[in-house]
Amino acid sequence: MVLFHTEPTILSNTLESLLVATKDIDCSITLWLIDQSDHLPYADRVRHQCEHQLDHTHLAWRWLGNVPNEGYGAGHNRVPVEEMGDLHLILNPDVTLHSDALAVGLNTFSANPTLVLAAPKGLHANGNEDYLAKRYPTALVLLCRALKISWLTRYFSQRLADYEYHDLTDSPAMQPITLASGCFMLVKSRSYIDSGRFDAGFFLYWEDYDLCMRMADKGLIARLPHMQIIHDGGGAADKGWRHIGLFTMGAIRFFNRWGWKWC
Question: What is the CATH number of domain 2-258?
């Protein structure tokens, strides 16, 4: 889990849900917290909060602080390869896990040796679906999502729905997908490592989609409808010009590598 000035209350909710989701899992689990906030008062406050919340629980944890902010992917890459175990969870600090989310994920990996990356069904806090799985994007779809012009959104509503996999059902079966959100990725560690992990050239945004494209060569990427989380992040266009710039730079890097699709 990579932190960057994460609101302590939000982090506390995530940690509490993680403790519940791992309580009955019979394996060794270590949580790595990488703080890239570069602000000692914040780091002290959050580390003490984690000590209070995580010490004397079933969950082992490691703190890595006072490191420069080199981006989301670079932060995750700081976890030592030898510490990853068989499966590795890439998790945002603003995610709430359903109590059985990890049990569903681990059981699915155990039963499906070709699976290398499992994505959850995402929900907003109000219960509406947060469509985390995506098909390969086009420039047109991204423009429509960024502009949020009502008539344009209505006109291209089917393309936008296709991009977000609105056709997927809640069947318990694995559902092959192209791209998954980096807010929650349960990955087979060996395949993750062999694919090169995150490309640190993406500072923020698109590093998760780039990882999916590379991991697809290692095996199956799938959405597990019964592995569920609550997530209210995302929305780069609503976070100001800096985030729009980072999103655009990441998109250009992604399309230059994997191919441009315009409409």
Answer: 3.90.550.10
